[in-house]
Structures are given as C-alpha cells and as structure tokens.
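Q: I'm writing up a methods section and want to include an example of the input and output format. Could you take the sequence below and give the corresponding predicted structure tokens, formatted cleanly so I can copy it straight into the document?
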Amino acid sequence: MTENVPPIAAHRRRPLMLALLAVFVVLALGVAVYGYAVARFHETTDDAYVNGYRVFVHAQRAGTVSAVHVDDGDRVEQGQTLLELDDTDARVQLQKASTAGAEIISQVRAQCADVAVKHAVLEQSDIRREQAEGDLKRRLPLLGGQALAPEDLVHARLAVQQAEQAYQTARQEERAAQARAGNCDLRHQAQIEHAYTEVLAAELSLLRSQLPAPWSGVIAERRVQLGQQVAPGDDLLAVIPLQSVWVDANLKEGQLRHVRVGQPATVIIDQYGSKLEFPGRVIGIAAGSGSAFSLLPPQNAVGNWIKVVQRVPVRIAIDPGYLQRYPLRLGLSAEVDIDTHDRRGAVLGSLPLAGRVDSSELYHAQLAQARRAAEAWLQKALQSSVDAGTGLK
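A: Here is the clean output for your methods example:
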C-alpha cells in the first residue's frame, strides 16, 4: 500500500535541498580558491626517503685482521681506530729498511773518506810536481857553465815527467772516488735519500696497520671478521655521517615544472609523526629519472614501449639544528611539501665553489707522522756516523 506524502512535507524538503546545494557550492568555491591561491604553489609527495653518504673503510695494505673495535650501530669519531691488522710483517720490513739504510750510510761515509784520502794524495803529488819543476828550472842556467853534468839535467827532466804522471794519476783517482761517493753532504746524498724513502714507506705501512675512521658517524654494513685476510679495495665496513643526511623527494615529471633550487620545503618524517615538521630547502634536482640510472635502464626504442610517468629525485637539505635534536637514519620514509611561490631560482644547481671538496686531514696526519719517524731515524744514523769519527755532516 502506497502512503501519500503530505503536501506540507514536500514543502519543507525544498529549503533543505537548497541549503544542501549551497553548502556544496561553498565547498566547491573554497576548494577552487584554495587550489588557485595555495595548492598551485605547493608540490607534495609521500615518495620521499632519507638518504646520505656511505663512507666505506678500506685497507691500504694487505694483512690479517687482528682486532675489530666496533660493530654495527656504534658511534665513532673521526680518527678513532676501527680495525687493526697484524703488524709483524710491517715491523720486520721497517727493521730491514733501517738496517739497509745504516749500511748505505756506512758505505757512503767510507766513500767520502776515500775522497778525502785521494784529495790529500793529489795535493802531495802537486807539491812533488812543483818541486821537480823548480829543481829543473834551477839546473838549466848551470848547464852552460859546465857546473852541471848532462846526466843530472836528464834526471831532473825525468823527475818532472814522473811527477807530472803521478799528479795526473792522483787526479784521476780523486775524480773516480768523487764519482763513486757523489754528494758528500750526507743529508742530501742520493743513496741516503733513497734509504730515507724506504724507511718512510716502511713507517707508513706500519701506521696503516691501524684503520681509523675517516669521518664521524655511525658504523653500518660491517663485513669484516677477526682473522680475515683483507686486501686493498675490500669493503670492510661503512661509516654513515648522520649529521650530513638529506631527503630525496621523488617528484613526478609534471611536478617539476615550477620547482627551483633554493625554494623552501617542509619535511615530515614518519618516525617523528606529523606534529614535527623539519624545515628544509631544495638544493638540487637529479640529472635524470630513477629508472635512467637503474642497473638495467629501459630501452624505449625496441618497439614495445609503454609510457610510464617517471619520477625525478629532488634533494632537500634539512636544517642542521633539527638534525642535531632529531637525528635521522638512512631509508626513513618522509612526506615533502615544496613551496614554489618564488620561481625565480635556477632549475640547475650552481657550479661548485672553487676548492669545495669533502676532505679529511687524517691521511695527511699519517704521512706527517711517518715523516717525523723517518727523520728521527735519519738524524740518529747520521749522528752515529759523526760519532764514528768521520766528521762528515
């Protein structure tokens, strides 16, 4: 049985429908105004993740791991010892280099002493030559007055010839001795410089038995075990500098239209929830989409191409103060909102500043320490040669 709707009910329904329509119109206008005034100046994505550097630690010489001081998750400071290699071979090599260097200094010392002896012999030969020439000159005036026998003049001339030959022989021997000895300034003598270099290399190899942290951060991806034989180039473990992380926001192609370097951004990390917003800014846009740099990039010219919307990583730098208070870790999920009101910036990042480079003084300090040790050895070896009575410096 059909119920008849009272005329008064239909009369009341019309204002309700009009009010409902007005609400929808106001909402639509609000959305349109918001889209025109606000939303079109913002690019957002939830396809964003925390990224950072992975500083892998490698051995600089082959060896056997004798100690491991850290494990995954440990925080380390720059210069802190992470691993130790067995240094027995390095110490033996250093001893061999030191002994060989001392022998070279002894040989050079003897050669330089021989130069001094040959020089003294040359001076004596020169004196005898001058004496013989003087005797001959004094005898020549006496020959006409029958005061000198002809045989004496012959003997005087023969003595001059013999003295000249002895002088030339001594001179050649002195030159040969000088050639063998080279530079008798022991500190800058070529053979001793080579010995110094061998000691320096041995000292450096010994220092490289300890593997320090090249950067402050947190240990990750430890792949080395006690007793393992390692070689230069092996990835032993990684140091993650969490104070230098950033966020990669993977925006769709169409979202890049108004994105510029330097624009402000707001980042929400899932770990801390939506109540904590990390301030950041755009510092760079990748040179290609993620698929272009994948292990097997797509070959779109084979004839079976299907168009897929690509995403391009946009790097967002986080305020360092927030990173200190709220540390992040690689791979954390994030939501990014980029404010594109200011569209005057560059699409490409600026050229790197002159001299701008990530560097560590750690390896320079190792070399300086090895040089100090090698210099100490050389000074001690040279002093020993002086104490031996050579007088050479």
